[in-house]
Amino acid sequence: MELRLCNPFRHIIPLSSSYSNQVTSSSRPRCLSVRSSHLDPNESRKLVLEVKEKLEKDHQSLPVGENGRDDEDLILWFLKDRKFSKWRQEFGVSELSQDSVKKIAETGKAYVHDFLDVNGRPVLIVDAAKHFPGVHDPVEDEKLCVFLIERALSALPEGREEILGIFDLRGFGIANSDLRFLTFLFDVLYYYYPRRLGQVLFVDAPFIFKPIWQLAKPLLKSYASLVRFCSVETVRKEYFTEATLPAKFRE
């Protein structure tokens, strides 16, 4: 396999067969093993040093320093980009469309709001009381999830990089509990859309949600710090204007 470097290198770096096998393997089922596609820290470090050594040996004429052949951050970026591209291909991100997710979207369980919040962020809303893991196809849930993330990101104003996630937990019950999907959602954001999630609001969380949160919190990694438990009134006053407030929070 080859890793093509754009500016400033414009050279080709051959990678080891072990990395090639990791990236090109098609044995993973389409319904989703997010973690199997990401670069863990030990793997990342090993591959970065391997590429760096190869560059030093075979391309000594290349510049060094920032954006040079020994820039480990740049090398890691290309490795991750390769993984990201492979994941998008395997998951079929480019094939997702309004029609392909129409049936599951009609449940109203999740959607992108028509307006930005007061901080200029696209808003992804999840109505947890409409999510039934025992009824809905988990593969279709995952497709809808990724489709909506992509749609929210496409609505980013120039100069903005983050979206706002709102989980409306009013009416949430045991039948709506789905730790696997919650983990999937944050894994996708963590590994494939890093630094795109600005904040997550858990609105009017009932008592029954608290033990679920205690189980989920460690799985959310650094994103757990972005979570804010709040009331509908807080959403109204701090995140939207009267004109942009989502209809479900006007009740």
User: How is the main sheet built?
Assistant: 5 strands, mixed
State the end-to-end distance: 56 Å
Name the average pLDDT: 80
Structural class: alpha/beta
Helical content stands at 25-40%
Question: What is the ordering of alpha helices and beta strands?
Answer: EEHHHHEEHEHEHEH
Q: Indicate the low-confidence ranges by residue numbers.
A: 1-37
How many separate helices?
8
Q: Please state roughly what percent of the residues sit in beta strands, choosing from under 5%, 5-15%, 15-25%, 25-35%, 35-45% or over 45%.
A: 5-15%
Cα-based radius of gyration, to the nearest Å: 21 Å
The largest sheet has its strands arranged as 3-4-5-6-7
Number of strands: 7
Globular, elongated, flat, extended or rod-shaped: what is the shape? elongated
In short:
The chain is an alpha/beta fold and 251 residues long. The protein has eight helices and seven strands; from the N terminus they run ββααααββαβαβαβα.
Please explain how this structure is put together.
- The structure is a single chain.
- The chain is of the alpha/beta class.
- It has 8 helices and 7 strands, in the order ββααααββαβαβαβα.
- The chain has helices spanning 17-24, 41-58, 72-91, 102-105, 138-154, 179-192, 209-216, 232-239, and strands at 2-4, 12-14, 110-112, 123-127, 163-168, 197-203, 227-230.
- α7 (209-216) links the parallel β6 (197-203) and β7.
- The termini are far apart.
- The relative contact order is 0.10.
Write the layout of secondary structure elements.
Elements (H helix, E strand, L loop, with lengths): L1 E3 L7 E3 L2 H8 L16 H18 L13 H20 L10 H4 L4 E3 L10 E5 L10 H17 L8 E6 L10 H14 L4 E7 L5 H8 L10 E4 L1 H8 L12
